[in-house]
Amino acid sequence: MSYEKIKEEFIKSAEEYINAKRQPFEKLSGMELVDAKSHYLDDFQEYITHLNFALNALIDEHLIPFQTLEEANAFQAYMKPTFDILSKKFTERLID
Asked: Which pTM was predicted?
C-alpha cells in the first residue's frame, strides 16, 4: 500500500474520531455547550494518542516494511504535515 493511501485512511480515522467526540455538542446549548467544549479541548492529549495508535495500526495492518532508519524517517517526514493539519482540525471552529 502506498504512503498516500495510508495517509487517506489516517485522515479518515482522525475525522471520525473528531466527529464522534463532537456529536454531543449538537444537543447542548448555553453553559452546557461551553462546558462540553472545554472538556473536549482538555482531551487533546487523548486525541494525539489516538492519532499515534491509528497510524501504527495502519502501518501494521498494511505490512509497511521499513528496511532502514532512513525509510522510517522519510515516512515520518511525509506524515508530519498531516499530523499538523489534524492537530489544528481538533480545535477548528471551537476557539474564536
From this structure: 0.86
